[in-house]
Design goal:
Layout lengths: L1 H53 L2 H5 L10 H17 L4 H12 L33 H15 L17
Helix pairs in contact: 1-3, 1-4, 3-4, 4-5
Amino acid sequence: MVIGAVLGALLTYGIKRDEYRRQSRERWDVDKRVTYQKFLAAANDYERRVFLLQIDPVAMSQPSSVDPKQLDQPFERLQAATAQITLLASNPIPFTAMMYVLALVPSIGELEAGHDKGPYGWAAAQLQHVGEPGEPTVANARGAFIKVVRHELRLDEVPVIFHTLASTR
C-alpha cells in the first residue's frame, strides 16, 4: 500500500513537471516569436527607408544633404529590437541578428554626427540583395536569421508557404 502511494506520488510529480515544462516552453515561445517579429519589422522598415534614399538621385549624389534625423526613428527601433533579442534569445540568434544589422547598417561601428556618407553611413555601401551564397548581403543575412529562429521555435520542419495577392484570385 505504501509502495502504491509512493509510486502514485512519483507518477503525479512526473506528469506535473512535464506539464509545467511544456507550458513554460509555450509561454516563452510566444514571447520570443513576438520579439523576433518586432525585430524583422524594424529591420524591414529601416531597409525600406534606406532603399528609398538609395533610389533618390539627389540623395545619392550628395549624401550629406540628407536630413540626418530622417533615419533616427527607424534606427532606434532597430536598436531596441536588437537589444530585446540579445536579452531574450540564446546563441546563435543574437549573432545572426547582429550580422543582419551589420548588413543593413554597414558603418554601425563608425556612427557619428555629420557622417560624410549620410545619416548612419547609409551611402557607404549599397544594400546588396543579390550575391553568392554565404556573401554578406542583406538577403543572405535575413535568411540566416530566419533559419535559426525557425529552428529554435521548432518550425524548421514546417514548410514555408509564400503567397501573393495574385495567387488568391
